[in-house]
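For consistency, the fold was encoded as tokens, as this record shows:
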Amino acid sequence: MSHSPEILLMKSKPAVEMSRRPTRPLLSEDSWHDAVKRRTVRVGIVGMGYVGLPLMRTFCGVGFCCLGFDVDSIKVERLNAGRSYIKHIPSSLIKRVVSEGRFRASDDPKSLRLCNAILVCVPTPLTKTREPDMSYVESTAHLIADHLRRGQLIVLESTTYPGTTRELVKPILETSGLRAERDFFLAYSPEREDPGRTDHTTETIPKVVGGLGPQSRRIALALYGAAVKQTVPASSCEVAEASKILENVYRCVNIAMINELKMLLDRMGVDVWEVIQAASTKPFGFQPFYPGPGLGGHCIPIDPFYLTWKARQYDMTARFIELAGQINTSMPEYVIARLSEALNTRKKAINGSKILVLGLAYKKDVDDIRESPSIELIEMLRTLGAKVDYNDPHVPRTPKQREHDLRMTSKKLTVAALKSYDCVLIATDHSAYDYGWIVKHANLIVDTRNATAKVKTGRKKIVKA
């Protein structure tokens, strides 16, 4: 049974909440500031994923009503039933804000008409040729344009290249016949989510905000300022867009440097992890970065290449970024080579060996597998003829992704199971693992994360990669 967007948004909403919905568009700055103060601004969030759901939690937490729009009807159904699909956003929170009438999800684009602000949190992946895939941003902009109302604030949060908001999003929105900074407001505010962190949250991370013009910036700052502890005004959308790219380029380049040092120092017989620990004792001028089997998550492996693509439009080559990308994307091959060497010393080949990959998530203690190097490691091992299983306490089964569909389920860790594998490959250093117990019962360990650093016995079984 289908419902109108009004019913989807207001079902089970108490009468006190009904009266909070603005009856006409907010056009002036004064009316916007007043509505923000009274919490009568209805916030729409497009994309109910690792960025959109925490954003909803933040705005609902300070008294706003939110609409969560997603094209995935299964997600919409789960959210309206009070069920979360992201580990660090508990179902109890979803159930509470739904029952209080502060949140409803919808897959009907007409529901966006009921919102005063629309925050866009959609993916910005790369194509197979490592160019920006802006299809999600473009389709979302067209969808909003079809239902755009006077006085609405549109904010892009997806990480992208400088110029996206002004050069791509604005012209699409203006196909509605409305004009930015006159009839509606347009801004850019980059998401800064880091799934799994407990020391920083959406509410506490400073929010950079850049507007298409001064009025859009002030209105966007007012909205975010009511929900987060600190806002950081940027003079333009381009500055805000570039700030997020800089953050991720910084990490990408430094991780590449330490990955290259790991490979070099390994040949020299020097433990890179001990080197990092020693260097970290300097109280200034050094920040530790750590090597791994490759980059994961939706930011660092992807976002820097949005800037290299943009640089080519200005007849420049972003050599640091390109080189860092080459090093980081080669790390799974390095891990496979080290694993092959380790098996070879035991007179075994990868072909026909049973290998258990520990950790499918891209980093410890999360359920996020986007761009995880574990997926590439599994696919490479399969191609080489290995019989591969995985275990991850946070990922019980592999979901279908845009480019991968492993169709695997997490294997239970038992003494018998560990002994049955020729090699255990530690790809993600989850805190839930008892590494001493794993080393004790495994035949061979290839450790890409230094997870076994504190294990005292059985060290001859351990090979670092």
Notes: Confidence is low (pLDDT under 50) at residues 1-23.
